[in-house]
Write a structure and sequence with these properties.
Helix content is 27%, strand content 30%. It is of the alpha+beta class. Strand 2 and strand 3 form a beta hairpin. Helix 1 packs antiparallel against helix 3. The longest helix is centred in the C-terminal third of the chain and has 13 residues.
């Protein structure tokens, strides 16, 4: 299964691809969870964005990734050529 399909199955939408890929999932009425693949340095960022600026000062930042999200991230990294499968033992 393609990474985009795996993310869509988890409720994420591809919302941007400038300099990398960005998937977004509405987390609640006031926020969304972001998974961002940044091409230049091959970084993966996961973060929560609130629509309410007050939340930034009172909510702890926790990024919990379950196995299905981990598999989607891993698949996307493979499709982007970030993982060299030939070096596996």
């Amino acid at each position: 299964m393609a990474a985009k399909e795996m993310f869509e199955e988890l409720g994420y939408k591809l919302v941007g691809n400038c300099g990398g890929l960005t998937y977004s999932k509405k987390d609640s009425l006031i926020g969304r969870f972001i998974v961002r693949f940044e091409n230049r340095y091959q970084f993966v960022y996961t973060y929560w964005v609130s629509n309410n600026p007050v939340d930034i000062s009172i909510l702890p930042f926790q990024n919990i990734i379950n196995i299905k999200l981990h598999q989607a991230i891993h698949q996307q990294m493979k499709e982007m050529g970030w993982l060299d499968e030939s070096k596996k033992k």
